[in-house]
Amino acid sequence: MVDNMLIESSIKERFTNWTENECFDCATRDELLALDDPNEIEDRFYTDLEFGTGGMRGILGAGPNRMNKYVIRRITQGLADSIKEHGEEARAKGVVIAHDPRRFSKEFALETALVLAANGIKAYLFDSLRPVPELSFAVRHLQTIAGVNITASHNPKEYNGYKVYWEDGGQIPPDKANIIISKIAARKSWEIGISSEADARKEGLLVKIGEDVDKAYLEKVKVQLLHPALDAAKGKQLKIVYSPLHGSGGMLISRILMEAGFSSLFVVPEQKEPDMDFSTVKSPNPEDPASFELALAYAVQQNADIVMASDPDADRLGLYVKGDEGYYHRFNGNQIGVLLQYYILSQKKKMGILPDNAVVIKTVASTDLGDAVAEKFGVKTVNVLVGFKYIGEQIRDMEEKGWGTYQFGFEESFGYLAGTHARDKDAVAAAALLAEAALYYRQEENKNLTDVLDEIHQMFGYYRDEQVALTYKGKAGRECIANIMNTLRRDKRTEIAGIPLKSREDYSISKKYLVKENEEEEIALPKANVLRFSFAEGGFVMARPSGTEPKIRFYFCVKDDSPQTLRDTMERVKEDFLGRIEDFLTIDKEQ
């Protein structure tokens, strides 16, 4: 009861500060004073937005647990304070800033630049919205100390976010994020100094960038194509329907496809232009089949061979492929990742350019089929935590220590990267490579991409991957998610749905328990709130609370000898695993 009283007192004090302190503008104070739901007030003030695997992301609105210009200023001041510790050279290198088409994204990008300018830190600001991978590329291209992207990726229109990149072009690692967090915590006041736009420009601390960086980035993307001559000569024969889902992909994905030779390109007209409300879709997420509704209608009309869509910041890409029967088959993120991996490795092997020390990188939540494909080509697989920043870290480590040559990386959430021009997932390069793969297999082997995926399964086994996400909002939701993870940590099962386990892995303590050997070994990855149950013959079940949304995600990967029984195997595994969670939670409540 005392704890609840303390929490309520803290919420009231924070609410009073935001509604009475004149450092907050009238619009902010009026919005808060108009709230009449105690639960809404609690949710806005019981905590601050935090960094997760993709930076900071939250619902737009007033309050410290919402995305607004004051939160943007505060987090940018923390970034500025950490940059200043690196000296004058770091200030002069500056920060490059991009944004997506979301509500207030352009304004938040400018706010970021002007807070940096007030701290004597140069800001390079893109002249309009740009894809995430270009921002990642621009950090190293312009040799800045850091980068910031204002985006909430594929989240609904009510969200916005703030991603920080460091000088290697990768998302900021935990040690750097912790420094920023400590700087924010040390600064109690919400009053943050901000330069005027005119002064920042006059002092050379605000520089607009655009086409020059676009050209440099696209040249690096073109280098990833394996058959550019084929693309130029025959690309027109491949019919493509593409949707940017109202986002930044419309600028560069359309451009790279046309420049490479894929001129039979149809861009969904209703979704071509940026739209902060994403008015034609419920959610601008290529992981959601509903986001392809318009594109698929046009695909039938255009008799398209492939259909692609990117999310608002163009780091994720979805795919449908027309099969022999004329039906459009949906590829999930794991299937796209494995297809691209197979195409790149097999073509490089055939061309004699696959290095002996080749490496592919994937996350622990991504399909085990990727490991099997890499092994076939004698390529090392590195599995990392969820979050593309960990793939970026491995690329940097390889370059610094010389232990491998990066070929490809992917994560199940529709993110892929070929090449080292960027250190984040790249829908622009992925779109170009998928178009090329579709063209190559049709021209050279008389196959479509569904045929190729079927052949991959015949060679390496039948895998099925699914995800279940449960949403628990607010403070009570956070407690519920913690309860679920604690329940799973106490579960010492040796099988799931009768399928024997090889290991139980708890990444929060960096321990792997080997079931058959009855032994423990260390997990050589950073600590994270992740649990993984790996099957003896391939596949796994994994639980992971989201770092940026009020959700807990369950990842399922099962392997079977027969495609006919694969779906049933998946359903049995899901029913057993999720059913036991409900049982344990019921017991906890009764106790």
* Uncertain spans: 1-6, 587-591
Provide a count of the helices. Answer: 20
**What percent of residues are in strands?**
15-25%
> Which quaternary structure do these chains form?
single chain
Radius of gyration, CA atoms, in whole angstroms: 24 Å
Architecture overview:
The protein has four domains: 1-46, no CATH class; 49-209, Alpha-D-Glucose-1,6-Bisphosphate, subunit A, domain 3 (Alpha-D-Glucose-1,6-Bisphosphate, Chain A, domain 3, 3-Layer(aba) Sandwich), CATH 3.40.120; 217-460, Alpha-D-Glucose-1,6-Bisphosphate, subunit A, domain 3 (Alpha-D-Glucose-1,6-Bisphosphate, Chain A, domain 3); 462-590, 2-Layer Sandwich (TATA-Binding Protein), CATH 3.30.310.50. It is built from 20 helices and 23 strands. The chain has 591 residues and is of the alpha/beta class.
How would you concisely characterize the structure shown here?
This protein is of the alpha/beta class.
Question: What is the topological layout?
Answer:
Elements: H1 2-20, H2 26-33, H3 38-45, E1 56-59, H4 69-84, H5 88-93, E2 95-99, H6 105-118, E3 123-126, H7 132-141, E4 146-150, E5 159-166, H8 174-186, H9 197-202, E6 206-209, H10 211-222, H11 228-234, E7 240-243, H12 249-260, E8 265-267, H13 293-302, E9 306-310, E10 317-322, E11 328-331, H14 333-351, E12 358-363, H15 369-376, E13 380-384, H16 388-401, E14 405-411, E15 415-418, H17 427-445, H18 449-460, E16 462-471, H19 474-489, E17 495-496, E18 499-506, E19 511-514, E20 519-522, E21 531-535, E22 539-545, E23 551-560, H20 563-590
Parallel strand pairs: 2-3, 2-4, 3-6, 7-8, 7-9, 12-13, 12-14
Antiparallel strand pairs: 1-5, 4-5, 9-10, 10-11, 14-15, 16-23, 17-18, 18-19, 18-21, 19-20, 21-22, 22-23
Helix pairs in contact: 1-2, 4-6, 4-8, 7-10, 11-17, 12-17, 14-15, 14-18
